[in-house]
Prior knowledge:
By secondary structure, the chain is mostly helical. The chain folds into two domains: 33 residues, no CATH class; 198 residues, MetI-like (MetI-like fold, Orthogonal Bundle), CATH 1.10.3720.10. It has a two-stranded antiparallel sheet with strand order 1-2. The longest helix is centred in the N-terminal third of the chain and has 36 residues. It is globular. The mean pLDDT is 81.
Amino acid sequence: MLAFTLRRLVQSVLVMLVVALVAFSLFRFVGDPVATMLGQEATVADRAALREQLGLNDPILVQFMNFISRALTGDFGISYRLREPVMPLILSRLPATLELALISGTVAFLGGVGLGIYTALNRRGGLSSVIMTTSLIGVSLPTFLIGVLLIWVFAVELQWLPSFGRGDTVRLGWWTTGLLTPTGRLSLILPAITLGLYQMTLIMRLVRAEMLEVLRTDYIKFARARGLSQRAIHFGHALKNTLVPVITITGLQLGSIIAFSIITETVFQWPGVGALFINSVQSVDVPVMAAYLMMIALVFVVINLIVDMLYYAVDPRLRVDRAQARH
């Protein structure tokens, strides 16, 4: 287990170094930070002084090492557009994105697993056919179109839910949440459904396929021959083995929810990190773009590391295979 963990940690560090190189390249090759920060009216002396202050006259390798050392402390410089430190700016928007992602991920996982189990155990039922047919909508339609349709139905026509914004929020230390206010909870419903619908249908179809495959295996047939109840077979044996690959997909989908919340946040004007990134791209705000890239990469690396550990702990075949390999 220790060797497995160390290998995964080394791989994670290498991935973050590659991402850091890409983020550093944004500073070097996307726009001119001196011209962006000072404007066209600055004198030559002002430009030279700022280049020296930013370390742009240092060798490339020195600049890259300085970038990594500052990134480790959370220092990504000053936003060109807002003239504010980048990390506090991202941290102020991070609670909105994480809250939306966690709610969407929870709904997607619980709904996907529940519907997947139901459609697998009742695959010839009429309701299962309706669910599988409806799930094609979540897989086929793009996220922004789902969001627009939900706004049109529930915000414009029915006027049940708000169409944009986060509603009222409550500050808990540095964290802000809308879950403790009525308008905050209502504002969360439409973007959470929009962001989680695709992931829910993907998880549902995966659980259904894996469950049907497991139910055909010999040890399930043997469990039936032993006279075990259907409940014990389905939930004590089949579901446990079904969830092994689902853990991997669910972990990756949680990272995808955070990374690709950009579209949902734009459609619903959700004040999260994704909307901040879109505005930064439009104004070529390189420090914010680089910090967002590093943050998303870190999220994926951490989630993949956790998923690998869970996979290793849940699936005994991995431990057996590695033990046999050593002998």
